[in-house]
Design brief:
Layout: H1 11-22, H2 26-38, E1 45-46, E2 57-59, E3 64-69, H3 80-83, H4 88-111, E4 115-120, H5 121-126, H6 128-137, H7 140-149
Parallel strand pairs: 3-4
Antiparallel strand pairs: 1-2, 2-3
The chain binds zinc ion (ZN).
Zinc ion binds next to helix 5.
């Protein structure tokens, strides 16, 4: 299904790609957004800049963040390596750094008591209903307890 060819690391391309990456994979994100609306899932905002890593979807009441990870940029092992045919010496370490950064962000968010879901482009494409179900199940229990655990007067 995938028609994406690996981009060349020219400076213009890199800038464009950096912009795309900072927003995740746009079409995948739009797809998930439609699915959530259609499934009646509420209580989320998109691209919350106040949360570390600017997650694609943030559910404040559940303490849940959802990242929609484009397969190429986030080094999906199932999809990416097949695609990189040129400039491997450039792309392989770059994508590895992206993966490492994703892990750091996830770990930090979890330490803050957040539930973190990372949904891959390919999984979302092939198992959309499953992804929505995971979002619906995720994140409910923790928030109330961690909020209660905050000493009063310590907010902000
Ligand atoms: Zn993939």
């Amino acid at each position: 299904m995938s028609r994406i060819t690996p981009p060349l690391p020219s400076s213009t391309r890199s800038r464009n790609m950096a912009a795309i990456r900072s927003r995740g994979n746009r079409s995948t994100e739009v797809r998930l957004r439609m699915l959530l609306v259609r499934s009646g899932v509420r209580g989320w905002t998109m691209h919350s800049g106040e949360v570390l890593g600017s997650p694609d979807f943030y559910f404040p009441a559940k303490g849940l963040v959802v990242f929609v990870d484009g397969c190429f940029w986030h080094g999906c092992t199932r999809c990416t390596h097949r695609r990189i045919r040129t400039n491997r010496h450039y792309w392989v370490p770059k994508l590895r750094r992206n993966v490492a950064r994703d892990r750091r962000v996830t770990a930090r968010l979890r330490r803050c008591g957040m539930s973190v879901l990372r949904l891959r482009e390919c999984v979302l494409r092939n198992h959309a209903a499953h992804c929505v179900a995971r979002i619906q199940r995720a994140g409910i229990r923790r928030v109330t307890s961690s909020r209660k655990a905050l000493p009063s007067g310590e907010d902000g």
